[in-house]
Write a structure and sequence with these properties.
six-stranded antiparallel β-sheet, Jelly Rolls, mainly beta, 1 helix, about 550 residues, 2 domains, Tachylectin-2, Chain A
Length: about 550
């Protein structure tokens, strides 16, 4: 059986294409580096990571803030032997396109699209080889003020990566004054051009709608059966929510399939893992797509659409004995050069950079980041992929000052986090649990944004013998029930704090776009330091398999 989500954890905005018997998929990554994770499958059920499209500093500049920043809604397509990926970097110069002969890379430097404003660009190749971009924009009202958001079209010259010709508006969505029509994709089938979009916002009222036309530039007729997929009518107790932002693909046998984003509810209306990648089968009736025929909703399981091709499970332990970090690790923001981390000999060493894990969140800019970048965040993180998991590491570190700290963090966007860290208080080495939360007014990319961050030490214990040796750190996440443990040397684990409330750092309080991230970090909290923290292995154990209902 195919089981949803097909790609668990924070992997939103999926875009899919097929080349022969192979399927490739790309996801948004927002403030994370490297950017735009890529996947390969032969059966649509089992997906293996093959790298990221933007894995060089020259390709991706993004700040560590994670509310509404970075890479959004890519579209992956293949044409004439070349893979094309278009997307938006909200933290840089906007819309771009990168290309590669092999999706595993290398990918080109970004070709910026300054004459294609808005967000969520999507690429379509017509039968005659001409290329078109669709995206979102606001058409002006008669008085010149910004009007409603719409989907629009422009032909793209692939030789120059410039828009050419007229730029008509195609559609404003299925509902009158539809909220945030975005994420467009164009397809051609049986002489019709189909425009598939997301509308209703990317949260509870998210939906998939469709229109069609005999001409690529319209006019487009909305389907009377819209929305073709949504869970907004199922209420807040149904275990999958936020369903939308879909992309279609045709299999070699002529069957059709779709991937889309959605969220699992954990312990109530809490979308701990962020937005994940889901699958549904698609049929065609009377010239229109029918998503998940028979139920019209995303099911927990479907029969495998294609002969299954097993993919080995990712290792749950990183011994840090290789030449570098594995593909599951990521950074918040573009990391500095030279790197702040070193891997090898069973150790992950992190420099104590000046930037705190909780730093002031500046108003968002839309444009190239300034040359004087803020200090990087010295953290290496993995996505939480299961509702219950345990993370553990041995930490070899001694705080030289009261400002220095290192440990494990559970983050739901910047400034919403639980930390199990080693530090110094009144000259004594201690282990402690810190909760950080932030109250917001508005969003960083809109006028009037304000915020106030609160950090609270929830529990603390001194280390024996001055903390001379390594300590073991463990965080146990059971739905929304968190426990924090530590051990000195080879001694037994001790519970420092039990039953911490995971709901305090949920997306409903954060309002951001990133799912839960977990991993090691080190900081000098605003001071200069030559100190380092060494992590002697990292364990991630996923348990309590999530079930529907």
């Amino acid at each position: 059986m195919l089981r949803n989500p097909v790609i668990p954890g924070f992997y939103p905005d999926p875009s899919i294409c097929r080349v022969g018997e192979d399927y490739y998929l790309a996801n948004s990554s927002f403030s994370l580096f490297p950017g735009i994770p890529l996947w390969h499958s032969r059966d649509l059920a089992h997906w293996a990571p093959i790298g990221c499209a933007l894995d060089r500093r020259s390709q991706l500049r993004v700040e560590p803030e994670s509310l509404v920043a970075g890479l959004m809604a890519p579209t992956l397509r293949h044409h004439a032997g070349t893979f094309h990926l278009v997307g938006t970097n909200f933290s840089d110069r906007g819309n771009f396109i990168v290309t590669a002969k092999d999706p595993r890379g290398p990918w080109s430097e970004p070709h910026w699209l300054p004459d294609f404003p808005g967000i969520d660009p999507s690429l379509f190749f017509d039968d005659d080889g001409r290329a078109y971009l669709t995206g979102t924009r606001r058409d002006p009202k008669p008085d010149g003020s910004p009007g409603p958001q719409v989907i629009w079209l422009s032909e793209l010259d692939l030789a120059t990566f410039r828009c050419v010709g007229p730029a008509p508006t195609l559609w404003g969505g299925a509902l009158v004054d539809a909220a945030t029509p975005e994420g467009p994709h164009l397809y051609k089938k049986d002489g019709w051009y189909y425009l598939l979009i997301a509308e209703g916002g990317t949260e509870h009222f998210h939906a998939v709608t469709v229109a069609r036309s005999r001409r690529v530039d319209g006019p487009y007729e909305g389907y009377a059966g819209n929305p073709v997929l949504t869970h907004r009518h199922l209420g807040r107790d149904y275990p999958f929510c936020n369903i939308g932002h879909a992309d279609l693909v045709e299999a070699p046998d002529g069957s059709w399939h779709a991937v889309m984003l959605g969220s699992r509810l954990i312990g109530g209306y809490h979308k701990t893992l962020g937005r994940e990648t889901f699958y549904v089968p698609v049929a065609w009736e009377d010239g229109w797509p029918v998503f998940s025929p028979g139920t019209g909703r995303v099911e927990a399981e479907y029969p495998d659409p294609l002969p299954p091709v097993p993919v080995p499970a990712a290792p749950v332990r990183d011994a840090f004995d290789g030449p570098g970090l594995g593909p599951d690790w990521t950074f918040f923001g573009t990391p500095p050069e030279p790197p702040f981390h070193r891997v090898g000999g069973g150790r992950l060493e992190l420099d104590l950079l000046p930037r705190p894990l909780c730093a002031p969140i500046p108003p968002m800019r839309h444009g190239p980041p300034p040359e004087a970048r803020p200090p990087a965040l010295a953290a290496v993180l993995v996505r939480q992929r299961a509702p219950s998991c345990r993370v553990a590491a041995r930490l070899d570190f001694r705080a030289a000052t009261g400002a220095e700290a290192a440990g494990l963090v559970v983050m739901q966007a910047m400034n919403h986090q639980y930390r199990l860290e080693r530090g110094s208080t009144d000259g004594r080495q201690v282990v402690r649990v810190v909760l950080a939360t932030t109250a917001f007014t508005g969003y960083p990319h809109l006028p009037g944004f304000t915020h106030e961050t609160t950090e609270t030490v929830l529990a603390s214990a001194p280390l024996a013998d001055g903390g001379a040796g390594p300590v073991a750190l463990e965080i146990d996440l059971r739905g929304q029930d968190f426990a924090f443990r530590y051990a000195e040397g080879d001694g037994p684990l001790r519970t420092l704090l039990a039953h911490a409330d995971g709901r305090l750092i949920q997306p409903e309080k954060v309002g951001g776009m990133v799912g839960t991230m977990i991993g090691p970090y080190a900081t000098a909290n605003g001071t200069a330091s030559a100190n380092r923290a060494a992590f002697l292995g990292f364990d991630l154990e996923e348990g309590d398999a999530w079930t529907l209902g």
